[in-house]
Amino acid sequence: MRVTFAHDKKARKAHYKIHHANITEAEFEELFSRPLVVIGQERQVLKAVGRTSTGRFITVVFIRVSSDHYHVITGWPSNRRQILLWHREMKGR
Question: Which of 6, 7, 59, 86 matches a 20 to 30 Å C-alpha distance to 21?
């Protein structure tokens, strides 16, 4: 699987790291290897909530480039509402 990241030219780092530097690239890779719950979509841009193996919930905005390539635009620790949506969807699977 391939995960790429949108970069902020001014800050010269991945966009998500500007406000959420405590999330690692490995956590994003982990998200895409586990079940995600899509909570929004605008054209090809998806917004989804996922859970890492350590139990941390992360919301990610991304483009699915191909079946094994995801381009992360940004991400942040999920809020309570997003976590509840994830649990509701996972219960039905």
Answer: 86
Read off the tokens for 20.
Answer: 């959420």
Into how many domains does the chain fold? 1
Distance of alpha carbon 18 from alpha carbon 29, whole angstroms: 19
Residue 25 maps to which CATH number?
3.10.450.530
Q: Are the CB atoms for 71 and 4 separated by under 8 Å?
A: yes
**CA 22, chain centre distance (Å):** 14
Name 17's bridge partners. none
pLDDT tens, residue by residue, 55-64 = 999 999 999 9
- Tell me the whole-structure pTM to 2 decimals: 0.89
Are 29 and 2 in contact by the 8 Å Cβ rule? The answer is: no
